[in-house]
Amino acid sequence: MTSGTLSSPAGSASAAPAGEVPTPSRPVGIRRPGGIRRRDRIVGLLAVLPALLIVVGFMAFPVAFAVFISFTRTNGLTYEWRWFDNYIALLNDPIVHQVFLNNLTFLISVPLVICTALIVSVLLFERVRGWKYFRIIFFLPNVLSVAVIGIMFRNAFGFNGGVNQALGVFGVEPIQFFTNGTTAIAIIILALVWAGFGFQSLLLLAGLTSINPAVFEAAAIDGAGWWKRLWYITLPNIRRVLGFVFIINVLFTFSGLFGFVFVMTAGGPGFETTTIDYLVYLRAFSSSNLGSGAALAVVLFLFIGLLTLIQTRVFKLGAED
Predict the structure, then answer these.
(1) How far apart are CA 140 and CA 135, in angstroms?
(2) SS3 for 174-217, per residue?
(3) Are the C-beta atoms of residues 195 and 138 closer than 8 Å to each other?
(4) Beta bridge pairs of residue 72
(5) Under CATH, domain 89-315 is a member of which superfamily?
(6) Structural domain boundaries of the chain?
(7) What is the separation of C-alpha 227 from the centre of its chain, rounded to a whole number of angstroms?
(8) Whole-model pTM?
(9) Tens digit of each residue's pLDDT (9 = 90 or more) over 140-173
């Protein structure tokens, strides 16, 4: 008789209070998303750990050692602690000032190579006749080493080179291109443009192909000409790629001209074509004081890092559109 009035303990425990929606319990065996993400993060860190150790061993340690010897006077065998004397000497060295101005002069190559690459990439994007073959031909200079390109331009503009022979046909006397700092810098800039525009054309072409073709079709229907489509559609849509190309060109101007200078002019005449990276080589390996070259390398490293941060902020490469 009393069984109808009694309720089971399990039922009373599982009953939800009036007015509340019962919360479904998580099925056994299903992990939380946070745990999965944590596990994936650990697996990813373990996967990159060997590469990280290699980078630390072959890059971080040399950089730290260069910073150490920049505070010393050393020939590689003995070390004399000099504190900031090497850095103070750099700031007061007129040769360093001249070389830095040389690097600023080489920045002329940046707009030249970008404009050339932009024109070529737009023509390839428009698929002019033979565009597939031109794409291969324009990329070929990037396959050649810097030494080969430097020798080619040195021989072409030498006293008995092809350029002087061509000028001789018109009765022009041979010109010593590499005995004048201005003409020597101009030839190196020409070599930089010739060697770099092909690769950067492909970078810009990749940015162009990511634009929706329907945008160009709609603009053409609305009567927009080629120049308007270029200025109002093409360039704004490849702003990030242009910014990236500009940054790598500026960085290359301050850190990648060693091969061209070494092969073509050896920094001459005097120091008129010497760049900062080539001066690091001269100070570190052509003198008895590695500390001076290391100090210049550290200053160049910090300058490039600061320049990269400024350019990234200017082009807003990390911002969302």
Answers:
(1) 9
(2) CCCHHHCHHHHHHHHHHHHHHHHHHHHHHHHHHHHHCCCHHHHH
(3) no
(4) 81
(5) MetI-like (1.10.3720.10)
(6) 33-86, 89-315
(7) 29
(8) 0.77
(9) 888 888 999 999 999 999 988 899 999 889 988 8
